[in-house]
Amino acid sequence: MTTIADLPLIASGKVREMYGLSRPGDGQGQARLLMVASDRISTYDAVHPTPIPDKGRVLTGLSVFWFDKTRHIVANHLLSATDDVPEQARGRALVVRRLQMLPVECVVRGYITGSGWKDYQASGRVSGIELPSGLGESERLPEPIFTPSTKADEGHDEAIDFDRAAELVGDRALMKRVADVAVELYSFAADHARANGVILADTKFEFGLDEGGELVVGDEVLTPDSSRYWPADGYEVGRGQPSFDKQYVRDWASASGWDRKPPAPAIPEDVVDGTRARYIEAYERITGEPFQAWLDRVGAQAASR
Question: Could you tell me the CA-to-CA distances from 210 to 145, 205, 216, 267 in Å, in that order?
Answer without folding.
Answer: 26, 16, 7, 40
